[in-house]
Amino acid sequence: MARLQHEVMPLFFVGRGGSDVNKKNHLPKPYHARMWRAIYEFELIEADDRILIGLSGGKDSLFLTYILKVLQSYSAIPFTLETATVDLGFPDSLDTGRIEEQCAQMGISSHIIRTHIADVIEERRDRENPCSVCSYFRRAALHRYASEQGFDKVAFAHHQDDALETFLMNIFYSGRVYALPWKTYLSRTGITVIRPMMYLTEKDVIRGFKRTGLEVVERPCPYSKGTMRARVKQLIAELAKENQKVRPNLAAAMRDGDHVELWPPTARRNRS
Length: 272
Fold this sequence. Notes:
This protein is of the alpha/beta class. The protein has a single domain, classed as Rossmann fold (3-Layer(aba) Sandwich), CATH 3.40.50. The protein is about 40% helix and about 10% strand. The protein contains nine helices and six strands; from the N terminus they run H-E-H-E-H-E-H-H-E-H-E-E-H-H-H. It has helices spanning about 30-40, 60-70, 95-105, 115-125, 130-150, 160-175, 200-210, 230-240, 245-255; strands at about 50-55, 80-85, 110-115, 155, 185, 190-195. Helix 2 packs across helix 7 and helix 4 (about 115-125) runs antiparallel to helix 5 (about 130-150).
């Protein structure tokens, strides 16, 4: 992969009324360094990539859109950015107009994918976890759209806390050791999923988002409270109060290496 430049250059977006959104509050160097580290280490962005960002309207995906636009402004490797928002179809409609407006402020083309995922969630809610159903069909809609429109990659806004929570959720609820991958090639659609923000913590994202001048667009969801992820998030927070190494240790545990020692597979009995 060709070498990417690392010098920090603030990007000034034009906000509403013609004002500069981040003229005084461009992102500090550590944000750039951690993003470039991920891009280098896992070869997330390559020359002439067409990247579609999954944009929900929340702080995480808005910040990912913003910081990728900043990196694009001085990257030695050319790549393009567009966003796609999946409208789930809940009665309290998502303010897609506000999402499109903020993308326009950043100079990024945006697309809205209309779906009936809300109806599927309602139909299956008594026998399947609503969040799992939503996640599956929302990702499928994005992947299909990206493939049909000729994008090379889909970027998701998972940060390090998301990765830690997913790691524990897989252990607790699925009985498997599985960490969110940085990069996944999907053979059915021919696109690659990337997660460039997993070296940033949720606190990093919150602090960075405040510098952007962007506004969260609330996504209506009647199933957002009391989720498995919320319980795991709370558990990690409580443990971290007692031991500051909880999060770093979990992050280290997600790395493959010599420190991984697991039981052997269950022995199969010979029934002959």
